Amino acid sequence: MTRALHRLSAAKVRSAPPGKYADGGGLWLNKRPDGGAQWFLRVTVHGRRREMGLGSLHHVSLKEAREEAEKWRAIARKGVDPVKERQRLARVAARNMHLLRDIAQDAFESRKADLKDDGKAGRWFSPLELYVLPKLGGVPVSQIDQQDIRDTLRPIWHSKADTARKAMNRLGICLKHAAALGLDVDLQATEKAKALLGRQKHKVQHVPALPWREVPAFYASLSDGTITHLALRLLILTAVRSRPLRFLRLDQIEGDVWTVPGEMQKGRRDRTADLAVPLSTEAMAVVAQARPFARDGFLFPSVRKGVISDATMARLMERRGMEARPHGFRSSFRDWCAEATDTPREVAETALGHVVGGSVERAYRRTDFLEQRRVLMERWADHVRGKDGQVVRLAHR
Questions:
Q1: 29 and 159 part of one domain
Q2: Could you say which of 175, 186, 328, 360 would form a disulfide bridge with 209 (CB–CB 3.0 to 4.6 Å)?
Q3: Which PANTHER family match (predicted)?
């Protein structure tokens, strides 16, 4: 049987003139007049003769051709068309060769609708772009395992813990996205990598905040009527984040209520839910002072185009030698609520734009505490202006 199959020899393969030569079992060698030569296999499946190439003689030896031929003959004996089976396996291999950088970009595109400003700020993608893709971007996603992830994120796992955590989270999302596309990936790779990396030692550092008792003196120093001073004043008075304040449009203010669009609010799953911010008498006065500077509908435009930057306000505080930053005034306000008032927690948290309570509690609670917050923000404005030093009492409703 072996002799019937193995009719050719290595010497015969090398020296044979142009023509077709059978090795047995359907394996053939075709030597062309131009010097080229190819192996091919003929098999019969379901009464049909099928022919498939096995590679050139230059790359495939006689031994390798025989091994490859036996593999496909075995498949044919099972009643499977070897030509179609090879095509199927090629499609599977090609599908699993998707590179991580392509999967990451596709995952980012599919999530843009859930990201602030369609992800234009780049905060969702940047942990991947800076710390993962330079090392793993060119690797097929199906080949990425926990050791690859560990080696990639180990340099920043403790030194830049928050960034590393975000990068790990985004990578996990990419793997799930790849699985949804039908790719063969290890969905547990990120969890295994965390186990290999160990617990993070880095402690979260909060944005430095000015103690609430020192806020009145700083507020009084913002007196030159410039856009930067006015923006900082309104930031302090409303306790909002800097982004919605910098992009504040005049048409968002109606009476003494400023409606912050849902997409401008950080951390809210429902980006359609707007937040009504009550403006104190002092806040309304600041808005009136800033109106002459308005451009293109924005209350706080920059010198050239667009709106004032967060860095502009932060630099003012830096130049004064302050550790505190603009975002820290939210902490100043929250500490004042806790230490100088008896404000109910849900009122204080809502004033900061935080989501309060679980989904069931929120479903039954129909109020946004606007009236209580209106009183609270008026009292805060009094404190900021140095007009009150006593504990504020608010009715708990």
A1: no
A2: 328
A3: PROPHAGE INTEGRASE, PROPHAGE INTEGRASE INTS-RELATED
Of residues 233, 325, 224, the one with CA closest to residue 285 = 233
Do residue 89 and residue 120 come from a single domain? Answer: no
- Residue closest to 308 by CA, chosen among 248, 393, 240, 351: 248
Same domain? For 243 and 352 the reply is yes
Rg of the Cα atoms in the chain: 34
- For residue 213, the Cα-to-chain-centroid distance in whole angstroms is 38
User: Alpha-carbon distance 240 to 233, whole Å?
Assistant: 11
Split into its structural domains, the chain has a count of 3
Burial class (CB in 10 A: 0-12, 13-18, 19+), 34: exposed
Residues of the chain with pLDDT under 70: 1-3, 93-97, 115-122, 202-206, 266-272, 356-367, 388-397
Q: Which pair of tokens denotes residue 169? A: 């989270």
Q: Where are the alpha helices (DSSP H) in the chain?
A: 2-5, 10-15, 62-77, 82-95, 100-111, 126-131, 133-136, 146-153, 161-180, 189-197, 215-221, 227-238, 242-246, 281-290, 310-319, 329-340, 345-351, 359-364, 370-384
Strand partners for 49: 44
Task: Give pLDDT tens digits for 142-173.
Answer: 899 999 999 999 999 998 888 999 999 999 99
The reply to whether 337 and 378 lie within a common domain is yes
Residues of the chain by 3-state class (helix, strand, coil), percent to 5: 55, 10, 35
Interstrand relation of 37-45 and 48-56 (parallel, antiparallel or unpaired) = antiparallel
Contact 379, 330 (CB under 8 A): no
Of 95, 117, 147, the residue at which a domain comes to its end is 95
The residue range of the domain holding 356 is 212-384
CA-CA distance, 383 to 212, in Å (whole number)?
Answer: 9
Q: How far apart are CA 103 and CA 182, in angstroms?
A: 12
Q: How far is CA 358 from CA 145, 344, 363, 364, in A?
A: 36, 17, 9, 10
* Cα 62-64-66 angle, rounded to 5 deg: 70
Report which DSSP code applies to 280.
P
Between CA 229 and CA 222 the distance in angstroms is 5
